[in-house]
């Protein structure tokens, strides 16, 4: 009898667990731009797990490297790497400023402020359902991270923007390769504007270019326009790799982004409000 | 108590593999579902309730690591864990080929469930990572059958 009851209990446990998961999913739906408190709470609990693992292995790796390397050379190397990193970001934004033909003094002032407003972060998580959709960085509200801050790769190319949820030490970044992303862009040489979004397979689509527009060509560079009110203008995004006329009102233009998700280990977060950058 | 420690260690190894491989080469996390192997292994060794509970726990952890909606992996893995525990009592899993087919079946069920739930929740097509994701059941089953045959997935006392 006891065995019978025990056997009967098992399906009930399964049903209870399934109902719990359904409840859990339904609490989070519909998926909107604003994250609910439940999702924020869960994110705050679990995101430190990844953070901890990455930190732990970095620590072990660093210990081993320190043992092998000369300490002075190592720290010098790191300083130089950081310097290059910041110089790349500065260079990028300097180009952007020059394009706007600002006065030299204004540019100098902006540059000195800029270094203080670039935050170096490391990626600590990938979205297994689609790693081209989002990633997680090891900096959060404690470091001044806010929603919609621009995220660049090591070379200063656009990678994405900060979206919620943001915990104390972690934040989620929507990549430009996400289908749901949207970046105001224009072609660098011809100045054709459009809206860039991910195609879900690692490439981006340059949307809303009329089929009658013949100005664009393969190989042309695409940069941010700043018209979306989120991303500063002049940031390098990618290069056009194909232009197809499929009979619709708009051309189907594929853009290969410059940033590579496989090498997205260190990123730069522009800490100021997008429109304040320059 | 020893089993509990083994389960915790296995989950930690799965998290470790997931996190580190994802950093080295993201496509590898499309290919291998380490959490499913943990769930199936302990469900075979113990029984279906533990499989379901472990499936729910591992699923929620994977949901948290994949930055998606909580419960999508959880639900799929709960069912997989229960099925693994239940079916393993009925099937003799002593040969490596049978273990392979068993894992392939379970991971495929989980994969289909996950795809259906994902499509429902996100209302979008899943990025199959240049087709790599479709190989997940096969590659996970290959890896799993190799590991299970080394570890001895089924307890001798429950054979038959």
Shape of chain A: globular
The radius of gyration over CA of chain B amounts to 15 Å
* Mean pLDDT over all positions of chain B: 84
Structural class of chain B: mainly alpha
Give an overview of the whole structure:
- Chain A is about 35% helix and about 25% strand.
- Chain A is built from four helices and twelve strands.
- Chain A has helices spanning about 1-30, 35-70, 70-100, 105-115; strands at about 120-125, 135, 150, 160-165, 170-175, 185, 195-200, 205, 220-225, 235-245, 250-255, 265-270.
- In chain A, the strands form two sheets. Chain A has a six-stranded antiparallel β-barrel. Chain A has a six-stranded antiparallel beta barrel with strand order 6-7-8-11-10-9.
- In chain A, strand 10 (about 235-245) and strand 11 form a beta hairpin.
- Chain A is globular and about 80 Å long.
- The N and C termini of chain A lie far apart (about 75 Å).
- Chain B is mainly alpha-helical and about 160 residues long.
- Chain B has one domain: Arp2/3 complex 21 kDa subunit ARPC3 (Orthogonal Bundle), CATH 1.10.1760.
- The radius of gyration of chain B is 15 Å and the shape is globular.
- Chain B starts with a helix and ends in a 9-residue tail after the last helix.
- The chains are: A alpha+beta (about 280), B mainly alpha (about 160).
- Chains A and B meet through helix 1, helix 2, strand 1 and strand 2 of A and helix 1, helix 4, helix 5 and helix 6 of B.
Topology of helices and strands:
The complex is a heterodimer of chains A (278) and B (160).
Chain A: H1 2-28, H2 37-68, H3 71-99, H4 104-116, E1 118-126, E2 134-137, E3 150-152, E4 158-166, E5 171-175, E6 183-187, E7 193-198, E8 204-207, E9 221-224, E10 236-244, E11 252-257, E12 266-270
Antiparallel strand pairs in A: 1-2, 1-12, 2-5, 3-4, 3-12, 4-5, 6-7, 6-9, 7-8, 8-11, 9-10, 10-11
Helix pairs in contact in A: 3-4
Chain B: H1 2-24, H2 28-31, H3 34-45, H4 48-65, H5 72-90, H6 96-122, H7 136-151
């Amino acid at each position: 009898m006891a065995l019978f009851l025990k056997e009967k209990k098992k399906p009930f446990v399964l049903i209870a667990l399934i109902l719990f998961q359904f409840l859990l999913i339904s609490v989070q739906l519909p998926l909107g731009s604003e994250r609910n408190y439940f999702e924020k709470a869960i994110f705050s609990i679990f995101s430190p797990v990844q953070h901890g693992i990455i930190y732990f292995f970095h620590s072990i790796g660093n210990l081993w490297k320190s043992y092998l390397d000369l300490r002075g050379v190592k720290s010098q190397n790191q300083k130089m790497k950081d310097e290059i990193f910041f110089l790349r970001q500065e260079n990028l934004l300097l180009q952007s400023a020059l394009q706007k033909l600002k006065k030299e003094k204004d540019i100098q002032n902006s540059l000195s402020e800029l270094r203080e407003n670039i935050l170096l972060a490391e990626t600590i998580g990938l979205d297994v359902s689609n790693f081209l959709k989002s990633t997680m960085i090891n900096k959060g509200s404690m470091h001044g991270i806010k929603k919609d801050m621009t995220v660049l790769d090591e070379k200063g190319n656009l990678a994405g923007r900060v979206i919620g949820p943001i915990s104390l030490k972690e934040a989620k970044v929507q990549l430009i390769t996400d289908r749901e992303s949207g970046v105001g862009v224009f072609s660098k040489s011809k100045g054709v504007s459009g809206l860039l979004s991910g195609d879900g397979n690692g490439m981006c689509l340059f949307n809303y270019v009329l089929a009658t527009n013949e100005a664009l060509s393969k190989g042309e560079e695409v940069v941010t326009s700043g018209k979306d009110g989120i991303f500063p203008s002049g940031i390098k995004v990618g290069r056009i790799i194909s232009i197809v006329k499929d009979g619709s009102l708009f051309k189907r233009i594929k853009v290969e982004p410059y940033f590579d998700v496989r090498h997205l280990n260190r990123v730069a977060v522009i800490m100021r409000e997008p429109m304040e950058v320059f | 108590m020893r089993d509990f420690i083994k389960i915790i260690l296995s989950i930690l190894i799965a998290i470790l593999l997931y996190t580190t491989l994802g950093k080295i080469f993201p496509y590898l996390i499309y290919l291998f579902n380490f959490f499913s192997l943990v769930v199936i292994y302990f469900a075979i060794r113990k029984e279906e309730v533990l499989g379901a509970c472990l499936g729910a726990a591992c699923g929620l952890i994977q949901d948290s690591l994949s930055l998606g909606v909580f419960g999508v992996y959880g639900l799929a893995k709960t069912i997989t864990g229960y099925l693994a525990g239940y079916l393993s009592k009925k099937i003799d899993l002593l040969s490596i080929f049978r273990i392979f087919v068993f894992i392939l079946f379970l991971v495929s069920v989980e994969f289909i469930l996950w795809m259906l739930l994902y499509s429902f929740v996100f209302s979008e097509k899943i990025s199959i990572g240049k087709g790599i994701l479709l190989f997940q059941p096969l590659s996970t089953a290959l890896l799993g059958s190799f590991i299970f045959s080394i570890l001895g997935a089924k307890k001798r006392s429950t054979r038959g």
